[in-house]
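Colleagues,

Please find the record for the two-part complex below.
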Amino acid sequence: MLIAAILALGMGTYAIRLSGVLLRERLELSDNLQRLLPMAAASLLAALAATAALMAGSEFTGPARPTGVLIGAVLAYRRAPFVAVVLAAATTTALLRLAGVP
Amino acid sequence: MSTVKRTLRDVGALGAAMVAVGASFGAIAIAYGLPPWTPIAMSTVVFAGGSQFLAAGLIAAGNPIAAVLAGLLLNARHLPFGLAVASTIGGSWRHRLIGSHIMTDEAVAFALAETDPAQRRRIYWLVGTTLFVTWNIGTVLGVLLGGATGDPDALGLDAAFPAALIALILPSLRDRPTRLVALAGAATAVALTPVLPAGLPVLCALLGLLVLLAPSRFLNPRVAPAEETRC
């Protein structure tokens, strides 16, 4: 049962990924639609970042994580190196938790 | 520093973070009481971080069918990702078949941040393979360490992922329509998270595209020079 569940999730995920790639070759997309694709991807990624920053399950996470992400986002906006962005976000959150902020 | 060097350094940093998150995934799965081969099998066969955490939790709770359904729902966003990066991956069957498996949020974000097509393809493959290798190394380490890694949240790793994504998508938010679509999509997803099952809220971010139906003078006001230089 365990192995069946893992295989089903793995093959289903692969089918989702591959079908997007293969569909693109078959679809004759209008110029307008082609302009929309990068926007759709950016929107999905932004939504992923926002939910990962703010939510834990279906509830608001404590302030520690969003604060760390905010520091990282400000650094990214100021064109800080990627490594600095990631490290600053993780360190801020870790320190806040150490200080007892959830 | 050259662009290539900077990219290599950024990918290296992401890879190091992946080892840490992969290790916490392996350790958590063991702590759930799953057999050691399961997290390793998931990391190679599924290779999608968020859905692996979710599935491991639901399997441990005795609900493997929910684990499969929730994991697939969470990964449904890879369909539009595939549409967006299809031409980046390459045209041969070998490229399509392997390139699809190494598709991750990070590989898509890194690739879309690059404008030159040849460079974009190199970056997609570099990020995809690096993450596949580091994620699996991390998982094995986590399994070996068992529950010893403890709480990954204590290291603030849960803040690293969204911060990295924001850094990666900022360059593609240069033009105002994309920025508005992304903001509307993100707000929709956050607002719907408390009421919809995992995975669905992020998909609803596609509703952000409806912003484009707004009057064009809202989307394209006279562009101030200062706004062009800033992202």
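The CA atoms of residues 37 and 43 of chain A lie 10 Å apart.

Comments are welcome before we finalize the supplementary table.
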